[in-house]
């Protein structure tokens, strides 16, 4: 039996389910089918979301009630820094994190539970949800429909579709079919993780002073990062007594060994750290998974001429450190929904193709910009004073460059996108140069024997330094945003100079052009100095 669809979504995980809901809400009457291999969703990595994706789910998809009734609110990112010997008690570690739930919401999601609910909602609303294995995909050429076979309960059915959307995750049906996958040679990172029950509640940990210093906010609701030189360990609560715990490690790190991607090696690695060993002392492992390489790119993500696209991990993936994967689901789904509306609404093929090319160019730019936050940065992670500067720099850039624009729907305005793309050389150059500065500052501290000097006994709340949080997403002059970004650049540069014991040139405030050309960073690359162990103005809570 053969069935024709307007849109076939191959994969019924988070990305596919959300796109199916978006199409159904925005394009009533369109024949949408979603093909999912597993009848019952299972635990999946990618539980921590951030503000852009949450805005997408709440504003675009109307999922506020479902999320607040079934998922945990996220209390921001929280970082703990350890002694070189990895034996510090949690309450003695330097901590960086919030004292209350952030102004812009996000969630820690149990993907098994959320995807089960989304499958139910989509099926009830009229999306044709089918379970079984998809094979024999043939992408139509010159406007011909796409063809594939779906097998379920021992029966095989042939299907055609005007559009095919790959939401199959790392199975990457279209990328493999067309040979699109690209390695990220500059970022070789492995990951291992599992879900645990009976993890010690971090909010029951330590004495009253430890709890009081964060004003009794729920630390356990944070995405907790234990940050080390060359790797980090996450703790993410996903509800009903289950905690996701994982390790992400640079494969060039001296601490890396392939056994970490095996269950016994993973558990042994966690036990080598006093704080994580204590939290997992009585825990029970529910499942285990690992990837030998987590980052990859794609030569193409959306194609308006051939009418196909990829979303979620079927497109590309950078790094989980700041939980950016779901943000890219939001962007890709918005772009795909717009292309479908244009094509199925009768737009000229050339118009659909031109918009797809614009979206493709922007997605590739965004992936590259995001990757620069991690490439060569893993040696920085375990050094508190530099990581604090980096985190504050990264989060303000996220709010001003990406979140604000998304909340204003600038990404769906072609002229805005073209303007952003005209500035990408500046943005990419600046991000790359700042990454080099963070690495150089870390090297200076390491050479001076001060890498771990401030990893115990301090606390800071970085978001308190970012004054624009409540204004993000509201209309504001573009010049105001640019001035704030320039101020962020100047502050990060000066703080790194202070940490490294470097004088900042002739005293003139650097311009955007100075950051693009590298002139703003020349003192760091030419001066040799012994950095102070505690730079003036950079100690303890005085930063907050």
Explain what this protein looks like in three dimensions.
It is a single chain. The chain is of the alpha/beta class and 544 residues long. It is 38% helix and 20% strand. It is built from 16 helices and 20 strands. The protein has helices at 14-26, 51-60, 64-70, 111-125, 173-178, 208-212, 263-271, 274-279, 325-344, 349-371, 384-407, 414-422, 424-447, 478-500, 512-517, 522-526, and strands at 2-10, 32-36, 72-73, 77-81, 94-96, 107-108, 128-131, 133-138, 146-152, 155-166, 181-183, 189-197, 223-228, 231-239, 242-250, 284-291, 296-298, 302-303, 308-310, 459-460. The strands form 4 sheets. Strands 1, 2, 7, 8, 9, 10, 18 and 19 form an 8-stranded mixed β-sheet that branches. An 8-stranded mixed β-sheet has the order 16-12-15-14-13-4-5-20, covered by helices on one side. It has a two-stranded antiparallel sheet with strand order 3-6. A hairpin with a 2-residue loop joins strand 13 (223-228) and strand 14 (231-239). Helix 11 packs antiparallel against helix 14 and helix 13 (424-447) runs parallel beside helix 14 (478-500). The chain is globular, with a radius of gyration of 24 Å. The model is unreliable at 528-544 (pLDDT under 50).
Give a short overview.
With 544 residues, this protein is of the alpha/beta class.
Give the number of DSSP strands.
Answer: 20
Helix/strand-derived category reads alpha/beta
The helix content, as a percent range, equals 25-40%
Q: Calculate the mean pLDDT score and round it.
A: 93
Unreliable runs = 528-544
The portion of residues forming beta strands comes to: 15-25%
Span of the ends, CA to CA? 65 Å
Main sheet specs = 8 strands, mixed
Q: What shape does the CA trace take?
A: globular
